[in-house]
Amino acid sequence: MEIPLLVSYAATGLGLLAFLPQTVKTVRTRQTKDLALGMYLVSWFGIAFWLIYGILLKNQPIIIINVLGLISASIIAAFKIKYK
Fold first, then answer.
1. Are 22 and 35 in contact, with CB atoms under 8 Å apart?
2. For residue range 41-53, what is the model confidence (pLDDT) as tens digits?
3. What is the torsional sign of CA 14, 63, 48, 54?
């Protein structure tokens, strides 16, 4: 496997990993009082652009990880809106 591909897996994987603990906690507790909706909305758009970039490059690691990232950020934003 090529080094750039390994780096893209690592970078995108760590980016997704950053959202996972908060997503799990939010789903379990349904508490979003201390979360900033704006931060998750801006992150959502950033992830969406990374996904588009990955699609344009046909880079599977970027596509897969950013689809998962969008799901995670969407869950948190939806819970924030639902459980104000």
1. yes
2. 898 999 999 999 9
3. positive
Q: Give residue 11's Cα distance to chain centre.
A: 12
**Tokens 């496997």 sit on residue:** 1
| In the chain, where the domains are located | 58-84
Sequence-ordered list of residues with C-beta below 8 angstroms from that of 32, at least 6 positions apart, any chain: 26, 76, 79, 80, 83, 84
CB of 61 within 8 A of CB of 12?
A: yes
Q: What is the pLDDT of residues 61-80, one digit of tens each?
A: 788 888 988 998 899 889 88
Output DSSP code: residue 33.
T
Between CA 4 and CA 71 the distance in angstroms is 25
